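ARCHIVE ENTRY
Sequence with per-residue tokens
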Amino acid sequence: MSGFVEKPEPQQVPGLVHLHTGKVRDLYRNEAGDLVMVASDRISAYDWVLPTEIPDKGRVLTQLSLWWFERLEDLVPNHVLSADLPPGAPADWEGRTLVCRSLSMVPVECVARGYLTGSGLAEYRESRTVCGLALPEGLSDGSELPAPIFTPATKAAVGDHDENVSYEEVARQVGAETAAQLRQLTLAVYGRARDIARDRGIILADTKFEFGFDEDGRLVIADEVLTPDSSRFWPADQWTPGRAQPSYDKQYVRDWLTSPASGWDRKSDQPPPGMPDEVVAATRAKYLEAYELLTGARWS
């Protein structure tokens, strides 16, 4: 069992129709037929949306995504039409809302990995592969891969777990041409972002993207990009293969949940507890630090 500890009621806004409440974002449609995405301060871990929110998190995700979209637009178009607040929207939506074109989404999580960790590490330890791709012997937690790899996953519903799949399975699901485009774009965007992050003292260990087709049949990058929710960011000056790496993402929350301090058994059906103030504050600080290091701008 997993999902929301308590699913929030969507806010009702004149002129907007609520479509979906996801782990982090609420999705609406406006009268023009465009999508309105609102990033909340909710945080998820281990397929649960936790009962405690992280202040400013939704704004950080939105503003950082916009910053990255600008730096990627020569590689791939994005779905953003406007970051203006829709008429009648609550003031709290300021800075966390994007008006986006409606796309026909590809049901694949497009994951790029430049370093071995997470589910990729677990598979490597069993079979020396990740998503069916053979890797050399001798790699450990945090090792840099010989070259970045495309390791797709099936997109799961809220409460379900994304499952790693082979490239061949993606090609069967969406067609060989689309699969090839997804792999090419994913690795191109990862390569650009990895170099930008590295110049700022951050290792982009892995990240995931979502794509959809627009009315002209172009693949467009959607949702969020290169945020602490969708990526693993590590401080480059502390990188040491062979152990878990310090990070600028929600790993802090994962670590607390699996520690004796939380009192939570991940293997049980019980929902996770609320986070204490010090864990909330430390997690918020990680998100803000990632934003400031990457963009070079002070959070305000």
Summary: The mean pLDDT is 93.
